[in-house]
Amino acid sequence: MSPRLRHRGLPLLLFLLLVAGCTPGGSPQAPAAPRQDSGSSQAMLGDLRTVDPCTMTDPAALREFGSAENAGTVSLDYCLLHVKLTNGSLVQLAVGELGRGPDQPGDPVVPRGPLRIVQNAPLPGHCSRQILFADDLALRVSADLLVGDPASGLCGIAEAGANTAAAALEQHRVGHREFPANSLARVDPCQVLDSAEVQQIPGLEEARGRPNPSGHQCSWGEQSADAPRVQLSNTAGDPPKVLHGAATEETIAGRRTVVSVVGGDPQLPLCSAETGNLPFGPDGQVEVAQLVVAVPGMTGIDACEYARGLAGKAWPNLPPPTP
Q: What CA–CA distance (Å, rounded) separates 293 from 15?
């Protein structure tokens, strides 16, 4: 499984993305412009497309729990840390992913200046906090147990991560990345893949693309495990690799592409197609366009056929994979 899929804090099968609404290939449904007061997401973060989420983290702030270090880039939208606890457990902390504010009442909300912090109820092996802006967007901080004791204080780690991120926001210390003109980060995935192409998949005949607030992801279909759905993400990390027997390296629309049944089980109706772009950072990582297709009731082989077809339509609309 690609690290970009494996390191997600919530189960990939649920495609639990916090997304806003838009419709390429149809009538526009763009979100309303955010209020430009001191507590709006744009006022506190600036250009959402270029935010460097790692500037909202501090491994030293997690010292009371154990040793923490950056776990490498797996997404443009969040920063991933690994925390090795004193009891030997390993926890990953993801900071920075933006989405719509929570719509489930009941979780405690703590005011913090122009911000509010939602203390989400913990789940087994998972605990999260959401920092709410005045325009009702939320910045997610989530702690997930990778190895070890389930009673490892995940909510304390999530709380510490949220406090560090809130302080960076309040003190206007959020940094931004500089992307070249032909970077994937500057490309709207909802414009790369026309909704008319996605609508060829059974169950998605009326689907329209919905971007996340940063503009790095576009999703089609209902976000539930039993519904067909498609997601196109512009991200970054290690170059796409063939990691198991249910993956192949192919050339699609002139681009090297790894097509892979997610998890390697052909009975799992989930497939990804990934192609690299420009270098990203100093450690051999690259920008990656990642297309994921889920077709419940079919097989992974079926999902990969749809992924190949959609990649063939999307890849020609990407910038060329050279500096």
A: 10
> What single-letter DSSP state applies at residue 224?
S
Report residue 26: phi and psi, to 5°.
Answer: -160, -165
pLDDT number for residue 225: 85
Please, are residues 131 and 41 in contact by the beta-carbon 8 Å criterion?
A: no
Burial of 120 (0-12, 13-18, 19+ CB in 10 A): buried
Burial (CB < 10 A; 0-12, 13-18, 19+), residue 74, is buried
Residues 6+ apart with CB under 8 A from 134: 35, 37, 38, 39, 40, 114
* pLDDT value of position 63: 95
Beta strand spans in the chain (E): 66-70, 79-85, 90-100, 109-112, 115-119, 126-132, 137-147, 210-211, 217-220, 229-237, 247-252, 255-261, 270-279, 286-294
DSSP assignment of 244-272: STTEEEEEETTEEEEEEEGGG-TTS-EEE
pLDDT block averages, 10 residues each, the chain of length 323: 49 32 31 55 95 97 96 94 96 96 82 94 96 96 96 95 97 95 95 97 97 96 92 96 96 97 93 96 91 97 98 96 69
Report d(CA 92, CA 84) in Å as an integer: 9
Contact 119, 102 (CB under 8 A): no
Contact 276, 287 (CB under 8 A): yes
Residue carrying the six token digits 């498609």: 230
Please answer whether residues 220 and 204 qualify as being in contact, where contact means their C-beta atoms are separated by less than 8 angstroms. Answer: yes
pTM equals 0.84
Distance in angstroms (rounded) separating the CA atoms of residues 151 and 52: 31
- The structure tokens listed for 9 are 């804090």
pLDDT of residue 3: 53
